[in-house]
Design goal:
Layout (H helix, E strand, L loop, with lengths): L3 H34 L13 E4 L15 H9 L13 E3 L6 E4 L3 H35 L4 H35 L8 H7 L5 H30 L1
Antiparallel strand pairs: 1-3, 2-3
Helix pairs in contact: 1-3, 3-4, 4-5, 4-6
Length: 232
């Protein structure tokens, strides 16, 4: 007859595996739609093949903006449907509400950059769920105070925190590259623009750090139990 602890972990493993299967299915579906339809159309928008979009930089970040080009400023004053605040590359257009620039770009390099930025954090979370499933399975076999289980718990915390941090930074850098490809000139201080658009994954950072701390607590508890058993 299985112990209550083993039974509890059994259902925990089942729950994690179900979540992992659902996550894999949804991710595979989104990637499949991205491959078949391309770009933003993977989310059902516009119906345009290979559409890529990026947050548009501020007017002053692009040389040749309306404050530096009197002809562009006059054209903007003359018509509400006139040119944008700065020159755009051929094929690029403004997607309201701004700032967002979009272009139908089917080149392999652009699509790889765009799609990898969309799924970067998703890939980290998927790997994190796999590590969690392996961690719980090991804890069910060896016990929660096993040294290997504690080490895996610590690694999972570090992976979650560092992985989501790197993936979110990569997404910001990729979006900066896409935005720069859709302006007719360049972006001033692109690294500053990327850092400004970098959305820190605070929830995953806190969760990752919490797992590292929990691993330390469990490790201390395991050491105390070993000392107690040795004394007895």
């Amino acid at each position: 007859m299985s112990s209550p602890r083993a039974s509890s972990l059994k259902w925990t493993v089942i729950t994690v595996r179900v979540l992992l299967a659902l996550f894999v299915a949804v991710t595979a579906y989104e990637i499949g739609r991205a491959v078949v339809t391309g770009g933003e159309n993977a989310f059902g928008s516009r119906g345009t093949q290979s559409l890529v979009c990026a947050t548009g930089p501020g007017a002053l970040s692009v040389p040749g903006n309306f404050t530096e080009d009197s002809r562009l400023l006059a054209a903007m004053d003359a018509s509400t449907s006139g040119p944008f605040m700065y020159p755009l590359a051929q094929g690029a257009e403004v997607n309201e509400p701004i700032p967002q620039l979009c272009r139908d770009d089917s080149s392999v390099a652009t699509q790889l950059l765009y799609q990898s930025s969309r799924f970067a954090t998703t890939a980290v979370l998927l790997a994190g769920l796999v590590l969690l499933e392996r961690l719980i399975s090991r804890a069910r076999r060896e016990g929660g105070f096993d040294v290997a289980v504690v080490a895996r718990l610590r690694f999972l915390g570090l992976f979650l925190a560092a992985g989501t941090l790197v993936s979110s930074l990569y997404t910001a850098i990729a979006e900066t590259g896409l935005a720069e490809s859709m302006v007719a000139t360049t972006i001033r201080r692109p690294w500053e623009y990327a850092l400004h658009n970098w959305s820190l994954p605070w929830a995953f950072l806190v969760a990752g750090i919490g797992l590292v701390v929990m691993a330390r607590v469990v490790r201390v508890g395991a050491s105390m139990r070993e000392e107690l058993e040795g004394t007895v």
